[in-house]
Amino acid sequence: MNNQDKIMIEKETTDKIEIKTKNGLNEQEQEVKMDNMSDLDKTTNGLGEKWPEPIIRVQSLAESNLATVPDRFIKPPSQRPNETITINQQPEDGAINIPVIDLSSILSGNQKDKERISEACREFGFFQVINHGVRPELMAAAREAWRSFFHLPVEAKEAYSNSPSTYEGYGSRLGVEKGALLDWNDYYFLNFLPLALKDLNKWPSLPSNIREVVDEYGEELVKLGERLMRILSSNLGVNEEQLQEAFGGEDFSACMRVNYYPKCPRPELALGLSPHSDPGGITILLPDDQVAGLQVHHGDTWITVNALPNAFVVNLGDQMQILSNSIYKSSEHRVIVNSQKERVSLAFFYNPKSDIRIQPLEQLISSTNPPLYPPLSYDEYRLFIRTHGPRGKSYVESHVSLVNG
Fold first, then answer.
1. Which residue in 52, 287, 31 sits closest to 176, CA to CA?
2. Are the beta carbons of 60 and 154 closer than 8 angstroms?
3. Angle between helices 394-404 and 378-388 (to 10 degrees)
4. Distance between CA atoms of residues 330 and 361, nearest Å
5. Which residue ranges have biased composition labelled Basic and acidic residues (predicted)?
6. Which of 372, 367, 369 has the alpha carbon at shortest distance from 397?
7. Cα 271 from Cα 336, distance rounded (Å)
């Protein structure tokens, strides 16, 4: 951020807000393993210990009684949402929504529900799952623990500020491009698996129960991810363990990003999260079921997901599209914000081992159905979004063209 940008922000925030920045990590944190990325990634792609410019905490902006949003958060007209969310808004009768799947019914052998989840993966790449085996009390406790964290004083949160190299901790931007347009959200990112990357010292210590609750929550979502992987494999007509083996077997990875979307004074100009497809395998999202915001791109429209109580929203990432040779779909999605209420959502990522090569499953390849994607590691996909920020489906689509010449 140059001096002119800083003056503009201070003016627009009525001179009452103090922009807190913390670009570095202490020496002990700098010695932590850099999220399993290779030395080549760290040195040639700009993912160092500092962000390219001072970090703007969106929550601080929101709490400063702004009349509008700073220019850095204003999207071009073509990218702005074509609707805004009204709290407690009811969906229109007959409105398209992502399918709702009863997981217990599938596990009990209901073939019809198994076919419905297959159709959802092929058409939407998204579905809601109910009766999934995770206790509602644990889901609520995890969401509220993180809401309490984001309500802490800014100084307490800054102690966990992240950097581009590890991404782990308290953050406010994706991508390292200087001067890039920003999204209206703060977040917290942490690792679960592999265990070598699970560093509880990088998890917040307040509220007092957050580490215990989040640890239990993560263990339950790993189990849920394993169940979903078996179902998705079976629906491709391959062995139930095939997708899990492609992810690295027991050496898969798992992490979580908690999203905090403060109230936005001009929600029609900004986005909470720009359009993107997830670079990994499966995302299990615990949405804010009181405030809508997630939208899925389907055909020529954006569908606002109406989250059911005690349900997870599951979406397939680019790695699943690649492994299935585009039988399954990783869909573009985004988040819109509102002026009335904050939102908190927990995205749990069930991903391949970082350095494993991902390519279409051999069982799905034939002379009439050639592979659509070259072998690439999950790290290469993840590095793209960490370098450039959300960019639709540009990266996975660019590699289709490589194969097809």
1. 52
2. yes
3. 130
4. 16
5. 30-39
6. 372
7. 5
DSSP 394: H
Euclidean distance between CA atoms 40 and 47, whole angstroms: 10
Q: What is the DSSP string of 162-222?
A: --TTT--EEES-----TT----S-EEEEEEEESGGG--GGGS---STTHHHHHHHHHHHHH
Q: Measuring CA to CA, which residue among 325, 326, 315 is closest to residue 351?
A: 315
**What's the one-letter identity of residue 137?**
E
Q: Is the pLDDT of residue 41 over 50?
A: no
Gap between the Cα atoms of 100 and 129, Å rounded:
6
Distance CA 120, CA 136 (A): 24
Q: Calculate the average pLDDT of the chain.
A: 84
- φ/ψ of residue 134, rounded to 5: -95, 130
Q: Dig out the tokens for 198 from the structure.
A: 């699970």
Instruction: Dump pLDDT digits (tens) for 54-112.
Output: 999 999 999 998 999 999 999 999 999 976 655 554 445 445 689 999 999 998 989 99
Q: What is the DSSP letter of 355?
A: T
Q: At the top level of CATH, which class does the domain 3-404 belong to?
A: mainly beta
111 token code pair = 């073939």
Cα 156-162-165 angle, rounded to 5 deg: 165
| Nearest alpha carbon to residue 309 among 188, 187, 137, 145 | 137
CA 322 to chain centre: 18
pLDDT exceeds cutoff 90 at 158: yes
What is the 8-class DSSP label of residue 94? Answer: T
Which residues, including other chains, have CB under 8 Å from residue 201's CB and lie 6 or more apart? none
**Residue 245: pLDDT over 50:** yes
Q: How far, in Å, CA of 171 to CA of 55, rounded?
A: 8
Beta-strand pair 100-102/126-130: parallel
